[in-house]
Amino acid sequence: MSVVIVGSVNQDVVARVERIPGPGETVLGTSLTRSGGGKGANQAVAARRAGGAQVAFVGAVGKDSDGVTLRASLESDGIDVSGLVEVDGPSGTALIAVDRNAENTIVVVPGANAVLPQLTEVQRDIVARSQVLLTQLEVPISLVEDAALRRPAGAWHVHNAAPSAPFVTAADRLLPGIDVLIVNEHEALEVAGRSDLETAASALATQVRALVVTLGEQGALIVVGDQRVEVPAFTARAEDTTGAGDTFCGVFAARLAASGTLPADVDVELLADAAIWGAAASAISVSRPGAQDAVPDAAEVANLRQERE
What we know:
This protein has helices at residues 39-50, 65-76, 121-127, 141-150, 164-174, 185-192, 197-205, 244-259, 268-286, 298-306; strands spanning 3-6, 10-17, 29-37, 55-62, 80-87, 92-98, 104-109, 132-135, 156-160, 180-184, 210-214, 220-224, 227-231. The chain is of the alpha/beta class. It has one domain (3-8, 39-90, 113-306): Ribokinase (UDP-N-acetylmuramoyl-L-alanine:D-glutamate ligase). The strands form 2 sheets. Strands 5-4-1-8-9-10-11-12-13 form a 9-stranded mixed beta sheet, sandwiched between helices. It has a 4-stranded mixed beta sheet with strand order 3-2-6-7. It is globular. The mean pLDDT is 94.
């Protein structure tokens, strides 16, 4: 198995609105849609559909109709869901409002995503066959720690520190097991405890093999030791930014797996190339509504990537 994602899967309920309401305010929506979401599942779909990798997803759904739907959705993308376990209670749900400028607010109710403190034996076997392990923090920190310990020697651990607040509380435990840390600018500042990106990036880069900072319309910054590469963004007309960062992470992980390299051989140019593919996929995704629904296929990403040649 090339890419294994340990993470969350949610039922997204998305309302389109003219503007995000303020405290105590009610606004009328223009549409309401339901689709698969969750940072982990979004990244799994991106790694498979846009990145072309063999992908296994490890997580949990509840004993409800949403759990059945979410499992079927991942299976339809060709993702191995033998590590997606069913637990008592409801599946995770995300309530999302998207305004006319493609900005969003998201409330996540974890549900089943918060139930497992450790991997099951079946899940550990799946992680043990990974080339690239990709994790985030919409699941218990202890689950991420367990996964990092179970990956095989020579496998990459790519960690997206989102949401960043839980990472801050466990950074000392998590950082030693991470090869590539992916954060956006806000997350970089919070995790590093700095007020400007330059010092935040410098501080974080000393604690992992490689650092990737996604910067939206400004592209991405790759830092490996004292080497830095800036990756420009692709031009996109944004309709919905939900899941754009997840699309980047999934495709980035897929490109690492395709490279066949080991973490010990980390190279700034290799990571920059993976980031270019991630940026291309992300640019396409923001031009469409939804999270998983907006993920492009590999051919679309390759076509846009060729424009950078």
